[in-house]
Amino acid sequence: MRRVVVVGHGMAGARFAEEVLRRDPGGERVGLTLLGAERHPAYNRVLLSSVVAGSLPPESVRLHAPDWAERSAADLRLGASVGKVDRVRRVVQVDDGEVPYDALVLATGARPWLPPVAGLVGVDGVLAPGAVAFRTLDDCAAITSAARPGAPVVVLGGGLLGLEAARGLVARGCLVTVVHPRSHLMERQLDAGAGRVLARALGGLGVELRLGAVAERYEPGEGLRLADGTRLAADLLVVAAGVRPAVELAAQAGIAVDRGVLVDDALRTDDPRVHAIGDCAQHEGAPTGLVQPAWEQAAVLADRLTGTDPAARYRGGGAVTRLKARDVDLVALGEVHVGVDDERAEVLALEDPARGRYAKLVLRDDRVTGAILLGVPDAAAAVTQLYDRGLPAPSDRLGLLLGRALPAGAVAEASPADLPAGAVVCRCNTVSKGQLVSAWRAGARSAPGLVEATRAGTGCGGCRDAVCGIADWLAAAEPSTASAVENQRSAVRGL
Q1: Which residues does 29 contact at the CB level (< 8 Å), separation at least 6?
Q2: Domain containing 187: what range?
């Protein structure tokens, strides 16, 4: 039996374990040990903004059933502090001894980046009182316990996580101000036009924005002082200024790191017995900070380390980002910063700030290579299908931007009966409509059953309504199951 040790029990490490156990359910080929730093079982970090908003209870974001570890062939150790990796002896040193390995998987994730703001961090490296990072389930508990209706809250960071946190806190009745040093929001995923429209939309929802503002000093109990002298009252400061890959363990072991732990297409580091996946890994074709690449990497590495497919390789893929904030429908994918003056691409843009809509489309050789779609959900569904499947775009480009023109083989997300079997419903887990139908016919006769059988809806959560819609459509063809599905589908929408 080959001994495989996984350092990290977050979304990447937990998915890798799940993929290994699917291929080797009895643990006959692989002896799997999981070392998780947190004391919580694995949970879906993508949905933490919904926990902050109060729309999901913390227990609903768990990735596995409470008794998963007991029922599996894995040795799961939570709250495990990993000291170092001895690559010569091939052991991982933990607080209660050593764990030997034949293959080591680093899934250490990323840590919040703390900007250089005076008073934010103490000499012990701990955040000052009243300041909380937004990364873990414990962070969510600290944020929600401090959030009070009418209380002033400052969110430091106008990227994806910062805006999700801000919208969630507004839903709790807090008076939220987002401080962002760049000229527009989500500058990695959006161009300036989309950033303007998003800022206006969030302002209409109660989020106050300070763009191009640099935080200078944090004073616990008082608030945040900006470089221009402005003082912002804050009972709570939420730090969501970005993350950095957790590479310290790898670096201490002499493994090559850059921004992340360097890996090849086999997800190997420069030590062939050590691998890395997820946010801590750096692969030239993988977008960072997204769940889909991590889970794709987990499947490839499970194929390799169980011997199921020794030739499996991870080749990277395109990035699709969704802002998970209530009343804001935003999708950004692929090339987003290509300008209309780029002669090598066809670029169209439509801006309607009064209605909170912005649509940008980038095409090369009649294929979608990038898009920003804000406030146009029908267009987002169609364009994402085109991008995922490499289908040619319809000649009516304006109709596509407005969600009115669909090419052959792509249909609106809200039409499950017409959706082709090969259409991807859950992009995070690469689950097609055909796979959902097959799971239904195999006995998963409810929306929660489809989720359990296929994992659809367990990633970013953006496809939950589509999964429920397909369950409703399938149930309608079998009246005996319709009432049961109606009773159970709310469980999926509440994940």
Answers
A1: 1, 2, 306, 307
A2: 131-241
